[in-house]
């Protein structure tokens, strides 16, 4: 039996680059990148708008080993255009998913995205749809597709839709998950509806703690690369069916959630409804205390 070599460097997932996250996630020295910067596969659209290009188009894809087992990995680079989806960016992830299905190997997606690039809106939206279809096809073929959320850009827009199709989601307190970003809500509904500059409001509404409490994410971890790695090892072992019965059950769960919390004006109101003692203290709780509070919340069928 071979023993996986682990990179034990302590690293903030939130602060790390896409390549740093991969390096500390997979077994040391096991990652091989596909379509790397040397191939210069860049967006054909950004130069038209005099925008900077990046040789990997903001996403790193390849194959490595996780605790000795082969896995495909895709990591978005939130520092380039907010990790936004464009034609090449989306095609790389879509192709990796299809390879995972063909070769029967699990896949990890390290989300760090604001959604679709406005400069490549049509191509980006098409890519989102293709990726979601590829995930469903992979899952129906028995492949685990695990999402990890904790980067600077969060996981917004089309990225959140993709995350919703994953087998399981791992999130940190720093991670944010929402279809619409804070600025988008404020622009369309006004600052009275949502103040995007209110960081406390943003995090308690879209942050990892809230998403975990309402069943929008499966595993909550500290902002450490080692914590994400350990959670990924556990998550990839858990089978989750993907069929009509499961989808119908998920739809009913979301309907119940909307009926129960639809009139709530703040996340704190939801936490109180869940029966969490001292709900206003949730944002300040360290991970251990938070998970204990979460374990005591009411109505277990609200969990994902």
Domains, number:
2
Radius of gyration computed on alpha carbons: 19 Å
Q: SSE order in H/E notation?
A: HEEEHEHEEHEEHHHEHHHH
Instruction: Kindly report the CATH topology of the largest domain.
Output: 2-enoyl-CoA Hydratase, Chain A, domain 1
Beta-strand percent range: 5-15%
- Rounded mean pLDDT is 90
**Strands, total number:** 9
* Architecture per CATH nomenclature, i.e. the level-2 architecture of the largest domain: Alpha-Beta Complex
Describe this structure in words.
- With 304 residues, the chain is an alpha/beta fold.
- It folds into 2 domains: 18-242, 2-enoyl-CoA Hydratase, Chain A, domain 1 (Alpha-Beta Complex), CATH 3.90.226; 246-304, no CATH class.
- Helix content is 39%, strand content 13%.
- It has helices spanning 18-25, 87-103, 121-140, 158-164, 182-189, 199-206, 208-213, 225-235, 244-261, 267-273, 287-295; strands spanning 32-34, 59-66, 69-76, 107-111, 145-149, 155-156, 168-172, 177-178, 219-221.
- Helix 2 packs parallel to helix 3 and helix 3 (121-140) runs parallel beside helix 4 (158-164).
- The longest helix is centred in the middle third of the chain and has 20 residues, at 121-140.
